Amino acid sequence: MEAQESPPFLREVILFLALSGVLMPLLSRLRVSPVLGFLAVGVLLGPYGLASLASHWPGLSWFTFARPEDVEFLAELGVIFLMFMIGLEMSVERLWSMRRLVFGLGGLQVALSAAAVGALALWFGNGIEAAVILGVVLAFSSTAIVMQLLIQRRELGTPLGQSAFAILLFQDLAVVPLLVLLSILSASSGEGSFASLLGYAVVKGVLTVVLIYLVGRRVVRPLFHQIAADKQPDTFTALTLLTTLGVAALTWYAGLSMALGALLAGLIIAETEFRHEVEITIEPFKGLLMGLFFMSVGMGIDLRALLAEPLWIPLSVIGLLVLKALIIFVLLRVFGLSWGRAAEGGLLLGQGGEFAFIVIGMALTLGLLERQVGQFMLIVVGVSMLAAPVVARLGQSLGDGIDRRAAPPAPEDAELGELGGHVIIAGYGRVGQMVGQMLAEQGVAFVAIENDAQLIAHQRKAGVPLVFGDASRPELLRKLRIDEARAVVLTMDHTAAAIHAVQGIRRLMPMMRVIARARDEKHALLLREAGASVVVPETLESSLKLTGWVLETLGVPPDAAMRLLEQERERRIVALRDHPRNASDPR
């Protein structure tokens, strides 16, 4: 009786699922980035690791990946779902609200870093096409690693967190023309000048993106509405997968990248009310397949090259980190961050990113990069990512030290010990200063928290009790005697920073009265849900104030007018909570 042949890739799939079931919980417990963990496993079990010893110990072949191409198809699906999830984060509305940081700060970072790295690539003898590809792709940072670090530190809502997020968002956007360019360069077979190919790539990419986006908006939302009305979760999942792979297939048939199509699919769904449900639906697929992708990348890294280049690879890693860190440091300072936070941001974003593995891998497959150059750069990017958590921790310590030296000394413990029955003001800009002045006029003690060292230096000269720091940090709140404070007033501009501060205060002092300023009703709802006691939306309050004057002019008694305004204030915020889309819809 003949032995039955196993289905193709069965061993590889079982081995990967076993590794995921053991590796992912272990990495989570150790607080290690899953990206780095899967990369390391790919290197260890790949053809240049333990698999190379299978000829001497045949039993190893059951626990190693001898051929990266055996998992290549599933790894490509991982890239598609990564791009789809990025698209979900890039709604047109969100891009427009952050346009200064995304297109200003992010655009300058990619342009300057790409120019600097590309010039070095040319100097080392690479052609113009290779220099452009390497310059742009090495300008990117690791979205997965940086976002995980910011979330772990609870810094995503800080000015540094928002700036880093904007840079990463623009880098994700910049992947689109780069993927288009790779497709055009590979299809051209060397015909035409580089400038003409670049122009053709831009035109073709823009037309394809616009066409799919406009048609997709008219088709996808009605489909999801119909499926949601049927209330069948399995059908909803099927439609999500169909949209992702279907749009990816359309761009592939147009001669572009499937990853570009997946990003477009995410962008289309991000404009609908089904975005969050889709994120939850697709998350398990994305996590597993991205792990497979990074394992396949690790399989292609030959660490023997590191031994062959014991000097150039470490120097290249250091050079990449230093070059990008300096550029990002200067840009963050120009965009208003303190010296310390700018230094931290430079080191936080100095590593290479996961897109380098995608783009360099495609460039090698298409013959746009020499094998030796591509392999060298993959190792440089991989080592820089492995070093990223350590470098980021160094950057945080360096930034804190710089800002402590730049900021005036905080009040001494003896001075803080006199605080009691005081008010803590978080954020001492225009609104915070007005609150502080009025409290001082009424003889109410207060202390303010601010993260702008220059503003602190200026205000403390005038005798204002200001300290440098983050209002969500429990150590600082305890030092400011929050347990003896009568209230906390939040006046900061950044929505995420204010929400982060409310949550931090609530964890430390659940019964503290927290009065927060909000830009609009939507911001007010988020602050209320985070735990703020009283929220004052600026746009709503100005409208209510005008209405109050009109009612008094018409002869309505002041007490009755006040009751009407209070009822309307509460009704608007409750309406926003119950129907968030309708309440914020200007129509």
Architecture overview:
The protein has a 6-stranded parallel beta sheet with strand order 3-2-1-4-5-6, with helices on both faces. It has 587 residues and is mainly alpha-helical. The longest helix has 37 residues, at 194-230. Helix 10 packs across helix 11. It has helices at 10-30, 34-45, 72-88, 92-97, 99-123, 128-139, 143-153, 159-188, 194-230, 233-253, 258-270, 275-299, 304-308, 312-334, 339-348, 354-365, 371-406, 413-417, 430-441, 453-461, 474-479, 495-508, 521-530, 538-553, 558-578, 580-583, and strands spanning 423-426, 446-450, 466-468, 487-490, 514-518, 534-537. The protein is globular, with a radius of gyration of 27 Å. The protein folds into 3 domains: 10-403, Na+/H+ antiporter like fold (Up-down Bundle), CATH 1.20.1530; 413-518, 3-Layer(aba) Sandwich (Rossmann fold), CATH 3.40.50.720; 538-587, no CATH class. The chain has 26 helices and 6 strands.
Short description:
The chain folds into three domains: 10-403, Na+/H+ antiporter like fold, CATH 1.20.1530.20; 413-518, Rossmann fold, CATH 3.40.50.720; 538-587, no CATH class. The protein contains 26 helices and six strands.
Defining traits:
about 575 residues, mainly alpha, Na+/H+ antiporter like fold, Rossmann fold, 6-stranded parallel beta sheet, 26 helices, 6 strands, about 5% strand, globular, disordered C terminus
Q: Could you describe the largest sheet, including whether it forms a barrel?
A: 6 strands, parallel
What CATH calls the topology of the largest domain is Na+/H+ antiporter like fold
State the shape. globular
The unreliable regions are 410-417, 579-587
Largest sheet, spatial ordering of strands: 3-2-1-4-5-6
Note the total helix count.
26
CA gyration radius, whole angstroms? 27 Å
Overall structural class, as computed from helix and strand content, comes to mainly alpha
Q: Based on the structure given, which CATH architecture of the largest domain is correct?
A: Up-down Bundle
Strand content is under 5%
Straight-line distance between termini: 74 Å
Tell me the helix content: over 70%
Average pLDDT taken over every residue: 76
Number of domains: 3
CATH class wording of the largest domain: Mainly Alpha
Instruction: Tell how many strands the DSSP assignment holds.
Output: 6
